[in-house]
Amino acid sequence: MKKLIILLAGVIMLNSCELNMQPESQLTFNGFWESEEAVKAAHTGIMAAYRNYAGTFWQMGELRSDVWGGNTIESPFGTDLIENNISSTVVHFSNWANFYGFIHYLNDFIKNAPGVTFAKPSDLNHMLGQVYGIRAHVYYTMVRAWGDVPISTEPLLEVNLEMLKKPRSPKSDVIELIKSDIEKSLEYFGDDNTLWLGRNVFWSKGATLALKGDVYLWSGKVLGGGNADYTEAMTALQAVTGFELVAYDKLWGQSNENNKEFIFAFDYQQDQASNFYGSFTGRAVDIRPMFDDSGNSMSGYVINGASRYGPTNKTLLLIDDVNDSRRNTFLRLYSDGAVHIPYVADEESYQGAVLNKFLGIVDIDGSRKDYNNVPLYRYADVVLMLAEAKNNLNQDPSAEINAVRKRAYGENYGGPYIYTNGTQAANAKAILDERMKEFIGEGKRWWDLVRAGGSFLFDEVATMNPAEAYKIYYSISQSMLADDSELEQTEGY
Fold first, then answer.
1. Pick from 125, 127, 112: nearest CA to 40
2. Could you give the number of structural domains in the chain?
3. What is the pLDDT of residues 293-336, one digit of tens each?
4. Which terminal Cβ of the chain has fewer Cβ within 10 Å, N or C?
5. Looking at the predicted structure, is the pLDDT value of residue 3 above 60?
6. Does some domain include residue 489?
7. CATH number, domain with residue 420
8. How far apart are the C-alpha atoms of 220 and 229, rounded to whole Å?
9. Statement to judge: residues 211 and 335 lie in one domain
10. pLDDT score recorded for residue 36
11. Which residues pair with 283 in a beta bridge?
12. Is residue 59 part of a domain?
């Protein structure tokens, strides 16, 4: 345990600095990589550190889209990102969002774990499959966020400030690293489709295949890979097995976390960590004088969060069909006791909304606890990415769209809810709408709109326009440029 603490301390130090971080005498305890126990301890540490970035993944993947920016009961958070206020002086996620400290940890594992003898070699292979998949996901997040980024694949066994200075590698090189890591992950997993310890809070072959589909859809559309990449994406997504769409009443909530739809989820537990969704709820003192949209009093409602993020009118109108289970994504709050179904935009009595997906449970002490696990990939994502791959290849995506709709509408599915194959553009819009309804609060919408290509991003996000397309990628800070002569500012800023 002492050795693990020393290793984790090195990671914390790295996370606190620029890529040209200040040195410590030792980043990795020299005798750490000696036993199976040490490798498993390092793996546990990786999963805990990975969870620390879940809020960043969400912000990067959703906050800049059209989902948020509506009423909040308290002062809102994230307004600069919601308004796409980004410049050379308004810099978000400075220091590469501290990803390189975590990448050092992954690189250290990849370099040293294979040299340790395991009683069951399959255990080591599974963990290596996980770590390569996670590194691919981190770099994939970075290339979507900044475009060109420095590549670091070796652990920092010593700190030489000059050696730490690295230029930004082209997007094409970063994508090649990501694809290579995905293949290494799949090679280590082999035919092993099991979940580590039987739990979806550890990376798996299914997670790597979902990521592969995601990456190849991106490289096919955004980086010009075209049909070859779409075909690769489709093949990967079709290979995801062991998961299925789960009825909504068996999908959300802490008692349902080990469901068959979550492919990979960040694990939150009492006395370890709580998730970041408390800011999507509210304070009891504010909410209890209000009413829901059916006119029911909220006086007995147990809540202890904050109202910092509010859904837009567009979001609430998109999911306002009472036959759609996804309408319950939000609990809408009003100052009067009238019925407000259907939702009408800009009614004076509308105060805000509570996100239901990750609401937590009321504990025996009478307070609400935010320990819901948060999915990064679930099977609905795979199904709708498969629809996207098919549509990009000019194939019929209606079966996948309808599978998700059938789950959403339940016994009301039929008639106008059945999707019929249309033009490629119409299908793309239908898939985007379905994904928006499905993944509110899950960090998907911004990436979806960028990946869709064409004018979708600028048509859907009022705060973006084609003249500022460079804002798709984040700027980097003046301090980063000053500290590292190898770096250049993101193009356009």
1. 127
2. 3
3. 999 999 999 999 999 999 999 999 999 999 999 999 999 999 99
4. N
5. no
6. no
7. 1.25.40.900
8. 5
9. no
10. 97
11. 304
12. yes
